[in-house]
Amino acid sequence: MKSPLLKKIILPLIVLVILGGFGWVVTQQGPMAPTQVTVAPVTRQAIAASVFGIGTVEARYSYRIGPTTAGRVKQVLVDVGDSVKAGQTLAIMEGVDLDARIQAAGLAAERATASIASATAQTKEAAARLSLAQREAQRQRELAAKALVSQSSSDTRQQDLAVTTAAVEASKAALEVANKEQQRLQAEQQVLRQQQANLVLTAPVAGMITTRDAEAGTTLVAGQPVLTLADPQSYWVKARIDQSQALGLQAGQAASITLRSAPQQALAGKLTRIEPVSDSITEERIVGIAFTPVPAALSSGELAEVTLQTGQKSDALVIPNAALQQHDGQTGVWKLNGDNTLQFTPVQTGIQSLDGQVEILGGLQADENIVVYTSKTLSATSKIKVV
Amino acid sequence: MISLAARDIAHSWSKYVFTGVGLGLLIGVTLSMAGIYRGMVDDAQVLLRNSHADVWVVQKDTQGPYAESSSLPDDIYRGVLGMPGVEQAANVTYFTMQVQHQGKDTRVMVVGFEPGQPGAPPSLVAGRHVTRSHYEAVADVKAGFKLGEKIRIRRNDYTIVGLSQRTVSTGGDPMVFIPLADAQAAQFQKDNDAIVSGRERTAANPAFNRPSVPGLLEAVQASQITSHNVNAVLVRVRPGWDAAQVAADIQRWKHLQAYTYANMEEIAVQKLIATSAKQIGLFLVILTLVSTAIVSFIIYTMTLGKIREIAVLKLIGTRNSTIAWMILQESIGLGLVGFIIGKTVATLWAPVFPKYVLLLPLDAVLGLLVIVLVCTLASVMAIRAALKVDPAEAIGG
User: Of A40, B99, B204, B383, which one is least surrounded by beta carbons within 10 A?
Assistant: First the structure.
């Protein structure tokens, strides 16, 4: 049944295979297996620093058009999406009692004109009385000097003269008042006419209507908009850049803009404004990026991703950012020595590129081998296997 | 002297090996069960280790952020940073969600982190770290994503730029790391219908929609959709400072809850996974007892099967100690074969398990000792039976 060959060869063979398999399993597969690492050299190459932010498409200049006083909307002549020219009538507010008030002001002005005439006549009358009083007073003084009339009678005439002089001044003042009143009423009428003109809402610039906020019959307070007007040529991206990346931003830097509606298409842009005040809550800088050129059919409020080129170096020590590790509270890399041992080397990093390269300012030399990927957290005594 | 045990085994080696294989599979299951238990504990601890934090600052009177929910304003970290002994303080958010991947739902824990701060993904196995401040993600390999794939979290697509390993939540769900600002938005973001109906609801409220105060409604609506909350602040302590002291200071002066690594480990291991760990632990104990019983029975029946041969040995005057030694050798040999096979299969099938199975060398050594002990004890029964055999049985039966 059993040949000696089977016993002599196959049995030890099976034992060997099982023991070998066991040894392999214990040393290569389980927790005692060496950590698999990927190694790459430190290279010298060009590196471009870029920053990334997100923002929304907005009109740089947007005009909220509304009445200057409270009132009711009479007519809205344009709709959202309409292109309008500068000066074009967009909406009309209802005057309510404005016409009647203009009429009333006109009548008051006319009355003022009549009062001027009356005051003029009174002035003339006063002047006539003054000249009579002057002559009388003169005469009485001469007669009194010759003692032909009583001193008392002469004094009375003198007093008449003073009274009449005062009456002349009073009538002149009254004329002045009437003149001023007329000017005031005319000015008032002017104001009301101006207000009437303000009831017509016109476009301050050429552009496109972006919102229509009130319809005919709506009562608005001063400052509430009826329409919003924006210039499509002024569309730009207001983007937010994390403060930690904002170093090196400069107006004029080239930008690439990707709209959420066209994720595959990169649009050209230019950094045109860096706001001096950054958002202290979100810790972001706010920048404005203009499209060069402005594409057609942009929609305000659309999400846009912005990538800005902030600087570049043509020759730098570069490593992949996956190689950077935290060890004992320090940032550094695991350096592979010639005898296949590991050594943690703290490094100083410079600019980062968006494709995951990091510039090394100190701690490493070119062509040194460093660990990039590791299957387990490393320590200086880790058994490793380079794959 | 010839080895009786070796001769006996060589005589019926196939039976012996098959018995050993059967026993080995049973030991393999027991070792795997121990590995599952260790893996569960390790899942709870690896989350803490990966955080690279010394102190966890969470909402007052909560055991967040892993065991309970915790919510903090995101500017708290500035105050924490100003406390003595604090070297780094970083906001983090955690939330668990289902993400779609190739038509299937994958359960992941989404982590919002700040690059270079505690809470960021540790080492990678492929790709690179996140460089853009939005819409990039590093995922654990167990989530099944490949580099360059898109992962949809709430409303936005994130590109997978790096893969990490052993970055899991306490429940063993793979982690997906995304930039903090995105995570903050995603955590509290509602779907579009909910946002629109919320706006309408606010607009219908006369307290917020007052004709005499233009702009109020817009202001109220804007305030409803922004989120400035995080789940925890991770703190690294300056070298030479005592983490417990720093935690106590933060707790006292900032009126927040602060846990050290040891506190957090207690929460994670002893509270969060306590029930399931006990469940597995109890099952492990039962499995060990069952294995012991089976090993004893196997060895006992194996000896009984040889009763005739033992009688012959006795008849020709073999000493009792020689017979006992043979049975003991065979028994321990069977245990060793079983252990080798068990350890091998347990190691080989461990990576196939959906959750982490951690086979500690110490557990294996402990297992080996238990097996040797059990085999020795089991052989005692068999030896007693063998020694009682009447040599006459060899002839008469």
Answer: B204
Which domain, by its residues, includes A272? 51-59+230-311
Cβ neighbours of B337 in A, within 8 Å:
18
Angle (CA) A96-A98-A103 rounded to 5° is: 135
d(CA A228, CA A238): 19
Q: What is the pLDDT of residues A84-122, one digit of tens each?
A: 999 999 999 987 788 888 888 889 888 888 989 999 999
What distance in Å separates the CA atoms of residue B124 and residue B114, rounded to the nearest whole number? 16
Residue at token pair 């997978």? B160
Residue A376 corresponds to which tokens in the numbers above? 């387990």
Paired residues of A227 in beta bridges: A65, A212
Is residue A324 situated within a structural domain? Answer: yes
Q: Of A311, A331, A366, which marks where a domain is finished?
A: A311
Q: Are residues A117 and A175 in the same domain?
A: yes
Question: Chain A closest CA to B223's CA: distance in Å?
Answer: 14
Please, which pLDDT band fits residue A290 given cuts at 50, 70 and 90? very high
Amino acid at B341: I
Domain with A361 in it: what CATH number? 2.40.420.20
Give helix B361-387 / helix B307-315 axis angle, nearest 10°.
60
Same domain, A297 and A269: yes
Structural domains counted in chain A: 4
**Is A221 part of any domain?**
yes
Task: Using CB atoms, pick whichever of A31, A242, A377 lies closest to residue B359.
Answer: A31
Distance of CA B204 to the CA centre of its chain: 50
Question: What is the separation, in whole angstroms, between the first and last Cα of chain A?
Answer: 49
Which candidate in B132, B225, B226, B362 is best for mutational testing of the A interface (most A CBs within 10 A)?
B132
Output helix, strand, coil percentages for chain A, rounded to the nearest 5: 35, 35, 30
Amino acid at B342: G
- A285 within a domain of the structure (yes/no): yes
B156-164 vs B136-140, strand pairing mode: parallel
* Phi then psi dihedrals of residue B59, to 5 deg: -55, 145
Cα A373 to Cα B123: distance, rounded to the nearest angstrom: 7
- Whether A307 and A366 map to the same domain: the answer is no
Cβ contact, residue pair A25, B166, below 8 Å: no
Residues of chain B neighbouring A331 (CB-CB closer than 8 A): 116
Please check the confidence at residue B304 and state whether its pLDDT lies above 50: yes
Q: Using the beta-carbon criterion (under 8 Å), do A321 and B166 form an inter-chain contact?
A: no
Last residue of a domain, one of A311, A334, A363: A311
Nearest CA in chain A to B164: A375
The verdict on residue A152 lying in a domain is yes
- Same domain, yes or no: A213 and A87: yes
Tell me which chain B residues have a C-beta less than 8 angstroms from the C-beta of A347: none
pLDDT tens per residue across span A301-359: 888 989 988 888 888 899 998 888 888 778 889 988 888 888 899 999 888 888 888 99
B129: nearest CB among A54, A242, A356: A356
Same domain? For A285 and A318 the reply is no
What number is the average pLDDT over the span A142-164? 88
Residues in B closer than 8 angstroms to A245, CB to CB, are 133
Q: What's the CA angle centered on B388, arms B385 and B390, to 5 degrees?
A: 125
A57/chain B closest Cα distance in angstroms: 17
CB-CB under 8 Å, A373 with B126? yes
CB contact at 8 A, B157 and B151: yes
Contact B125 A53 (CB under 8 A): no
Residue A245 sits in the same domain as residue A298: yes
Q: Cβ separation of B10 and A11 shorter than 8 Å? A: yes
Chain B nearest CA to A124, separation (Å): 57
Q: Please report, for the domain that includes residue A70, its CATH number.
A: 2.40.50.100
Q: Are residues A369 and A238 in the same domain?
A: no
Residue labelled with tokens 């009339």: A149
Amino acid at B303: T
Q: How far is A26 from chain B (nearest CA, A)?
A: 7
Residues A141 and A168 in one domain: yes
